[in-house]
Amino acid sequence: MTGWTARETAAALRRREVSAVEVAEFFLDRIQRLDLQIGAFLAVSREWALQQAELAQKTIDDGSAGPLSGIPVALKDNLTTREIPTTCGSRILEGHRPVYDAHVVERLAQAGAVILGKTNLDEFAMGGSTESSAYGVTRNPWDTDRSPGGSSGGSAAAVAAGFCPVALGSDTGGSVRQPAALCGVVGFKPTYGRVSRRGLVAFASSLDQVGMFGRTVEDAAFLAEAVSGHDPGDSTSIPFEPVSLEPVPLKGVRLGFPKQLRDSAIDPDVARVVDAALASLRKEGASVVEIDLPSIELGVSTYYVIAPAEASSNLARYDGIRFGPRVDGDGHVGTVASTRGKLFGHEVKMRMILGTYVLSAGYYDAYYHRALQVRGMMAAEFEKVFQEVDWVVSPTSPRTAFRLGEFADDPLALKAMDLCTVPANLGGFPSLSLPCGASDGLPVGLLLTGPAMSDGRLLGTAHSIESALGPFPAPDLG
């Protein structure tokens, strides 16, 4: 079953070739046997998963099955769940049990999915390597000395390692697509508002979006269709139908490659793999042209003003009184200071301080207001380009998976890994990474970004590209 896609698993379940309980037990046993070397999961709920599988099998037997009935799914641990603690990879939420399920978790239950557990992440989704989790690092299944990327590294590694067919993560600046690229799987970030954020623990509210991982584009679309759609409980949710894959032939598709990325910090080996993939797409009838996006080079610096500013507001609620454990201090102020000082990690504290600084009197206009202006300019540039090409294309990550600890003394270099992915978040555009080859045995991702609300066509185009490039292998873990 390791090589089965979610679609193939669903078909086998409907044909009664395997039961939902057998599927769940297979993946639960694989996690128990192999996850010690990967560290993808923070919590696995075997008993609950088997209960869900039994219920799913009943619906399959009586003909009332949902689209995901019996399909195992993993959740990034910043999606609230009543049955499993939600820690966000932080000591300040250790053991925290929310009183409600995230909207996407409700939708998974309605679709009949079997939730296996919660995956590791950078603390509060702040990071690009899954090394800032308070509960240990996650390792890349292709090379366990390397990072799976972040912040949704646990979900990406779980799918790559064959611990589950599909998984959910969150993408604030590339946190689904970058780890997907580094782990050799598909990562999809829908248009902002196409998937409800209710129950997604907030990092940067105007940028956060729930995203999907799968071994194939079709599987990512399969999961997206199940969890997307309007949610009246989320004021930013768009009243629109669920996302679904729309077939798009490659012949005549117009792809635009930003010329600014040709002269940027893209690793030459990554560039060669991507260029080879684009050459293959030209043979299938697609056109690839150079486009001008001057502000794309400002994306990382703009993001690292706006995101920390929003985080400094969103994380103010974590004070040791309302959520999680408490570290006593001298009075209320001392207790709050002690709790935050000892239970927040370095990366979270750094971003909260930075965010408070750029919002402070005397600096608001110089930093935050200016960043918002650049954000608007960038979105306008992309929208103009989308009148000339169908999709903006680039490498997903400037380089392949890096060694764990490699950026310990150079945090700015780690942040530069977001170069290609942050524009989609700043503009609210749908974006998808799919494997397009390998460099020195490590996966390379191809990034497609499209205009707002083009999710179905983006998935369809990516599916055609995937078919043209051929299947990408899985790492051999045994």
Characterise the protein shown here.
By secondary structure, this protein is α/β, with parallel strands linked by helices. The protein has a single domain, classed as Amidase signature (AS) enzymes (Alpha-Beta Complex). Helix content is 38%, strand content 13%. The protein is built from 15 helices and eleven strands. It has an eleven-stranded mixed β-sheet with strand order 1-3-2-4-6-5-10-11-9-7-8, with helices on both faces. β7, α8 and β8 form a beta-alpha-beta unit. α2 packs antiparallel against α3, α9 crosses α11 and α9 packs across α12. The radius of gyration is 21 Å and the shape is globular.
Spell out the blueprint of helices and strands.
Blueprint: H1 6-14, H2 20-34, E1 41-44, H3 46-62, E2 72-76, H4 103-111, E3 114-119, H5 153-160, E4 166-170, H6 177-183, E5 186-189, E6 210-214, H7 217-227, E7 254-258, H8 268-283, E8 287-291, H9 299-314, H10 331-343, H11 346-358, H12 364-385, E9 391-395, H13 411-415, H14 422-427, E10 431-439, E11 442-449, H15 455-469
Parallel strand pairs: 2-3, 2-4, 7-8, 7-9
Antiparallel strand pairs: 1-3, 4-6, 5-6, 5-10, 9-11, 10-11
Helix pairs in contact: 2-3, 9-11, 9-12
Summarize the entry for a quick read.
This protein is of the alpha/beta class and 478 residues long. 38% of the residues lie in helices and 13% in strands.
